[in-house]
Amino acid sequence: MDLFDSELRVIAAAEELVRGLKPNENHTVVAAAMDTAGRIHTGVNVHHFTGGPCAELFAIGAAAAANAGPLVTIVAVGDQGRGLLAPCGRCRQVFLDLHPDALVIVPDDTTGKPSIATVPALLPHSYRHPDSAPTRLLRLHARYFDAVEDGTKTLTVRWNEGHRTGAALAYFENTEHSTFPVEVTSVMVKRLDELEPEDLDLTQPGGLERYIANLRGHYPAMPADANVEVVRFRRTAADI
């Protein structure tokens, strides 16, 4: 999946900061995270013999200090030219509990180039802290803004995103459109190759094939037997 310009800005912010670090074995990784307003928050790791927080956790803390709300993109970059770094297990668990809808930029194992991963994909068969109650995001392409805003689009199909029913924010990727509250009313999990037109409210001939083709364009690595989520939602007026 190609990265949006906004995601490339997050990488650039982390790379710029890491280039400015003086050689110091206690500070070797920089993280950057973007919020729904497009602001970028950064942090540097602190290594210590008693244990020290990763750069990603410092970036999350900096975002919280700025009252940023949910984060949409997170990346870590190592010093001395090490490039993009995948998050450790602890950071993955923190993402799941605090920012489960953030996209994490990681190096592709094959090409080494930046790649995007959802938090559930990074942490399969995960444990979710029972007291965590993060603000959820329903990520949508900018072209759907008008249809979601006026209530004509109320269904989307997602893969590896772990949606649940309840309050969320509609977030439109790589755009200046603001978020607004929605309610996820149902989540049906079904195999991609077992979807029926009625599952997606499709009535035109060939509609299912076209829908799946578009879905594959968004999720090029999605296998034919993937379990996908048919997410139904509605716009709400109440703040969450």
Automatic annotation (TrEMBL):
Gene3D superfamilies: Cytidine Deaminase, domain 2
Gene Ontology annotations of biological process type: nucleobase-containing small molecule metabolic process; pyrimidine-containing compound metabolic process
Coiled coil location: none
Gene Ontology terms: cellular component: cytosol
An example molecular function term from Gene Ontology annotations: zinc ion binding
InterPro entries xrefs: ASCH_domain, CMP_dCMP_dom, Cyt/Deoxycyt_deaminase, Cytidine_deaminase-like, PUA-like_sf
Domain CMP/dCMP-type deaminase: 4-130
UniProt similarity note: Belongs to the cytidine and deoxycytidylate deaminase family.
Full protein name: CMP/dCMP deaminase zinc-binding protein
Record organism: Brevibacterium linens
